[in-house]
Amino acid sequence: MNRQKQLPHTPVRNESLRGALELLAVIAGIVLLAALSWEIIGGRDTRFSDFYLGIQLVVCIVFLLDFFVEWATAPRRSRYFWHNLLFLLISVPWLNLLGWCGIPVTRDWGVIVGLLPMLRALLAMVIIVRWLTSDNKVQRLLIAYVFTVVVFTYISGLVFFEYESGVNPKLQGFGNALWWAWMNVTTVGAEIFPVTAIGKIFCVMLPSLGMMFFPIFTTYVLQEYTHKKEADL
Known about the structure:
It is a single chain. The protein has helices spanning 2-6, 9-42, 50-73, 77-83, 85-89, 94-100, 107-114, 116-132, 137-164, 174-185, 197-232. It contains eleven helices and no strands. The radius of gyration is 21 Å and the shape is flat. It is 79% helix and 0% strand. Helix 8 runs antiparallel to helix 9 (137-164).
């Protein structure tokens, strides 16, 4: 009888634990984004500083802790592991591991590898949004997509500044890079044209992401209008 009383509370405890871990992952991601911003905007060294590598190591440990705790509490561990293997791979502090192994990583490649943990933080935020708006799928999709657009646009500005600064004569500071990113995600375009391969890739990705936003926004507005009209009737 005691077991029957405890069983209904188990899923609630698991959901509370998962929510706390995902919230911690979001906070860790914000810290990592701030550290990455400081590293790119404030420094032009050929390698990442020990301070940033230390921040990334701590944040990745938080991500890994989140993964293994959820794996340990999952009812079907094997299925959970394979379905969430991507979460594990992007949570690994690859820059730190490569440094410990004595494998030199140039700053150009280091920026790309260092962005992998940011994907984990972005996924954590999407999960939090899904829980907070579970009663409205369109609203959940809209909020998650707006957050994705804002964060990805900012990161694109960072990456563009990192790769184009010094080789693109039209780029004058991070403010120009951020302006370039927002103009491209709104599909308006900017007078700053990328000259590096990475810059050109992001120049294609940003308008594509922006064009995907408008159908979602239109669907949300139509749904809200329909609900309001039905309520008036």
